[in-house]
């Protein structure tokens, strides 16, 4: 590309040969306050990666956590780690540079994985709800139904469902012509922000994208709600002690689900009213993966005990090394 073409693209004017990269505008309107957000996002990202890594480590090394519920939790933690990595590091780099750019293929890869992983996490939350339903409503048949094969099928189904709900709209948007301007008014390759830059009619893109988003949210939401309605009916027939025990096994998952879907609804409504607003989207992208390990660490007694056992093992190992 010639220098004049590159210069015109940077300034947001049309480029005759089609754009080869996008400029991510990010939250440049914040001015000096960007550094405050930089520090908050950096700390949040470190805590998210550390907390979810801890959960994966504990579920793999502690025999008492070798159960279907913690298998699903470990997979959810992995998805959350990759989910935040698709956007947050690029945003952090953008805060430290005058102009943040991303190649067109890189933008669409980021777009695909951001949405796909978000839907996959909801698929895993749905599998966890089904796991709780079986454990509470059919305890005698739980181990015979929730086999390792079924666990792997549920995880594979979550990933496949995420791909199914993401790939069609992503491919349609990818094949649109982009001849300029090339400034994405977002911190990452947000689909609606990129779609506004297409030099063609995007009504089909918008319809397919919205339809698949509704399929993803409603399908997982209805299945999770159905699981908890059936759990509620079963729990209502139990004694008080059994109710408390059943509630204790669900409270962490129910809290995560409530926060996730409430935040998603808030972002959707805010985005409809303020299409150029990015703060709510950034908050949503970072908040849910950040809260998941915090909630499970604080609300789950088995996980708390596993953390204590692990710390004791490390301390005893250090003591033996010092004695030697």
Q: How would you portray this structure in words?
A:
This protein has a three-stranded mixed sheet. The protein is built from 13 helices and three strands, in the order αβαααβααααβααααα. The radius of gyration is 23 Å and the shape is globular. The termini are far apart. It is mainly alpha-helical and 324 residues long. The protein has helices at residues 3-10, 34-61, 68-85, 88-95, 104-137, 142-145, 148-164, 167-174, 191-195, 203-235, 240-273, 279-299, 301-323, and strands at residues 21-24, 100-103, 183-184. 74% of the residues lie in helices and 3% in strands.
Question: Summary?
Answer:
This protein is mainly α. It contains 13 helices and three strands; from the N terminus they run αβαααβααααβααααα.
């Amino acid at each position: 590309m010639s220098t004049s073409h590159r210069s015109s693209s940077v300034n947001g004017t049309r480029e005759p040969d089609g754009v080869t990269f996008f400029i991510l505008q990010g939250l440049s309107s914040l001015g000096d306050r960007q550094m405050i957000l930089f520090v908050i996002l950096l700390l949040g990202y470190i805590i998210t990666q550390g907390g979810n890594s801890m959960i994966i480590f504990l579920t793999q090394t502690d025999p008492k956590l070798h159960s279907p519920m913690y298998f699903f939790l470990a997979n959810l933690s992995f998805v959350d780690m990759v989910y935040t990595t698709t956007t947050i590091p690029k945003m952090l780099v953008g805060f430290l540079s005058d102009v943040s750019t991303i190649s067109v293929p890189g933008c669409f890869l980021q777009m695909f994985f951001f949405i796909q992983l978000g839907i996959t996490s909801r698929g895993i939350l749905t599998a966890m709800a089904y796991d709780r339903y079986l454990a509470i409503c059919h305890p005698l048949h739980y181990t015979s139904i929730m086999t390792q094969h079924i666990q792997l099928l549920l995880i594979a189904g979550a990933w496949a469902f995420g791909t199914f709900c993401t790939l069609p709209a992503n491919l349609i948007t990818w094949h649109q012509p982009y001849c300029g301007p090339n400034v994405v008014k977002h911190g990452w390759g947000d689909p609606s922000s990129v779609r506004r830059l297409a030099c063609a009619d995007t009504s089909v893109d918008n319809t397919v994208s919205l339809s698949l988003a509704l399929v993803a949210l409603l399908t997982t939401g209805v299945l999770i709600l159905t699981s908890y309605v059936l759990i509620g009916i079963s729990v209502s027939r139990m004694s008080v002690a059994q109710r408390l025990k059943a509630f204790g096994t669900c409270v962490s998952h129910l809290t995560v689900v409530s926060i996730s879907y409430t935040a998603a609804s808030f972002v959707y409504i805010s985005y409809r009213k303020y299409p150029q607003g990015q703060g709510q989207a950034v908050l949503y992208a970072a908040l849910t993966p950040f809260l998941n390990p915090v909630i499970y660490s604080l609300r789950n007694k088995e996980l708390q005990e596993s953390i204590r056992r692990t710390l004791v093992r490390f301390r005893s190992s250090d003591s033996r090394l010092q004695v030697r």
